[in-house]
Design a protein that fits this description.
Blueprint (H helix, E strand, L loop, with lengths): L1 E3 L14 E4 L2 E4 L16 H18 L7 E8 L5 H12 L5 E6 L9 E8 L6
Parallel strand pairs: 4-5
Antiparallel strand pairs: 1-2, 2-3, 3-6, 4-6
Helix pairs in contact: 1-2
Length: 128
Amino acid sequence: MRPIHTSDAPAAIGPYSQAMIHNGLVYTSGQIALTPDGEMVSDDIALQTKQVLKNLEAVLVEAKSSLQNVIKTTIYLADMDDFVVVNGLYEEAFGTHKPARATVAVKTLPKNALVEIDAIATVTSYSF
């Protein structure tokens, strides 16, 4: 196993890695709408979703992967009424690639974020 860290996404806010690579797969931790310097981007669901996807992509790139290599995601929403906005931006980010996905409503997210997304993806090359 190999931990992943990039300064292009916010540092982990607890005792965990941004992602872990194991057997050709990268497992990302959930990404929320913090900028790489640790500030919440906004309280707007569209701006938060864009930042979450940007963070997710940065972690994947550091792991020698990409959004196009994602096998499965999980989206956590503080309010299911935000689903349409999040879904539209998600579709825009992934294009014609359609990973498996679960979307769940949760009571609260870290830092009172409105959305969090994690992913499992293949890596194009890895070594230990």
